[in-house]
Amino acid sequence: QVQLVESGGGLVQAGGSLRLSCAASGRTFSRYTMAWFRQVPGKEREFVAAITRGGASTNYADSVKGRFTISRDNKSALYLQMNSLKPEDTAVYYCAAADRAFAAVASWYDYWGQGTQVTVSS
């Protein structure tokens, strides 16, 4: 098993930036495909970005492409750099881990953090 804890959320004005972090503990971090999802009340959890086990490949939702950057270190941390934030980026952001190849589907992921709130004001 792996435990995930997100941090870095908060309130920011439109056009601003935030950096989310996800600390992993438990089993070997490097074996997991990692991803960020987000969710607003009443809607399904939405894929944001993912990164492969070795970090060589990334994938982004069209809505964040060019503004968000996912990265990971060699130890136990996942990051999401969010620039040029928009009010529609407001959501609870979750990091997730999958002990398998990349997918942009929430049901593919085995482990989830508790989420961190990001609020973008207009």
* Helix content class: under 10%
Q: Which of globular, elongated, flat, extended, rod-shaped describes the shape?
A: globular
SS-based structural class?
A: mainly beta
Strand content: over 45%
Order of helices and strands: EEEEEEEEEEE
Mean pLDDT: 95
Q: Sketch the major β-sheet.
A: 7 strands, mixed
Can you give a write-up of this model?
- There is one protein chain.
- With 122 residues, the protein is mainly β.
- Helices cover 0% and strands 51% of the residues.
- It has strands at 2-7, 10-13, 18-26, 33-39, 46-51, 58-60, 68-72, 77-82, 91-98, 111-112, 116-121.
- Strands 2, 4, 5, 6, 9, 10 and 11 form a 7-stranded mixed sheet that branches.
- A hairpin with a 4-residue loop joins strand 7 (68-72) and strand 8 (77-82).
In brief:
This protein has 122 residues and is mostly beta strands. The protein is built from no helices and 11 strands.
List the helices and strands and how they pair.
Blueprint: E1 2-7, E2 10-13, E3 18-26, E4 33-39, E5 46-51, E6 58-60, E7 68-72, E8 77-82, E9 91-98, E10 111-112, E11 116-121
Parallel strand pairs: 2-11
Antiparallel strand pairs: 1-3, 3-8, 4-5, 4-9, 5-6, 7-8, 9-10, 9-11
